[in-house]
Amino acid sequence: LGSRTGVRADTMWSAFGILRGARRACGWSPSGSARHFRAPAVYAAAPDAGSAGGASPGETARVPSTVVRGTYAGVNVAYTVTHGDDQRGYPGMTVAEMCAALEKRYEAKRPPAERHIHQLIDKVTTPEDARAAARAVARFRAERAFLAAGDEAWGLTNDDVKRKQTQKRHGLHPKSLLMFAEKCVAAGDVALAVDALEKRHVFGFEASRAACERLLEACETSEQVLRTYAAFRKEGFEVDGAIATATVAAAARVGDSDAAERWMGTFAAAGVRAEKPSGIGLLEPAFEREDSSSDSSREHDDRFASSEEKA
């Protein structure tokens, strides 16, 4: 019995020795009650899962990203700038330089991430910048869709990483359109912003109520007002008094009083009350005109009846 116990003890200690050796080979070392895992050099030098989104293959440690926050039409929009983006000089580039850098990524089959598009949009200051950014946004949407539909990995050697990338939405964040529209308006190209809203599926934008309201405030022609409101209705947003007033005010602001009056009548017929813009000489809304006309007709009938009684 004693010999058997000794054999079992030796076997157990041998097993513990093998386990200890395996842990040391994997880089594990005990430290108090916590367990720490040090990746071997061969794994530390390998590209991480975020390399497809902008991290360089040689990075061995992650540096916290910088979060850039901006306010567009009263809405907070944020995007990140990673350490790899900073090393490549993206924050200091112009729109033209950033577009060229993104083009090189496509040529190297390392598609840019959504944050790169946000960085690009935030650089827009002129109408030329806005047009170049619009082309880059459309290219990003097309390439992302191609990556999702194709069999080519585009530098994503890990199947799990590729699956994660391709399962993302092919468009941009819902606030991206508001960000782009605000930049276009500030650059003096409202027409491009309206085009982006109307052709949002081409650019990969997602329409939002805030973006439509911002464009109604910036429209320069009654045609732009009509197109913006049509996109608003097509997305299925609720038409309330606020959007009705904004539409009427936009038409009146661009000098199309007839269109503003027609809009007021249309909204009134649908049961939505639109406030008359202040400082603009418009006729009364349709429902007010109907009430006034009915009152005047009643007064006329009363006068006619009294005259007949007197007779």
Describe the structure.
With 311 residues, the chain is mainly alpha-helical. The C terminus is likely disordered. Helix content is 59%, strand content 7%. The strands form two sheets. A two-stranded antiparallel ribbon has the order 1-2.
Question: What's the structural blueprint in terms of helices and strands?
Answer:
Elements: H1 2-25, E1 28-31, E2 34-37, H2 41-44, E3 66-72, E4 75-81, H3 83-88, H4 95-107, H5 114-121, H6 127-149, H7 159-166, H8 176-187, H9 190-198, H10 200-203, H11 209-218, H12 222-234, H13 241-253, H14 257-269, H15 286-310
Antiparallel strand pairs: 1-2, 3-4
Helix pairs in contact: 4-6, 5-6, 8-9, 8-11, 9-11, 9-12, 11-12, 11-13, 13-14
Salient structural properties:
two-stranded antiparallel sheet; mainly alpha; 311 residues; disordered C terminus
* Regions with little confidence, pLDDT below 50 for 5+ residues: 25-56, 282-294, 303-311
Number of strands: 4
Using only C-alpha atoms, the radius of gyration works out to: 32 Å
Which word captures the global form? elongated
User: What pattern of helices and strands is seen along the backbone?
Assistant: HEEHEEHHHHHHHHHHHHH
Strand arrangement within the widest β-sheet reads: 1-2
Q: Structural class of the secondary structure composition? A: mainly alpha
Share of helix, binned: 55-70%
What is the tally of helical segments?
Answer: 15
Distance between the termini: 138 Å
Average pLDDT, rounded to a whole number, is 76
- Quaternary state of the chains: single chain
Residue fraction in strands:
5-15%
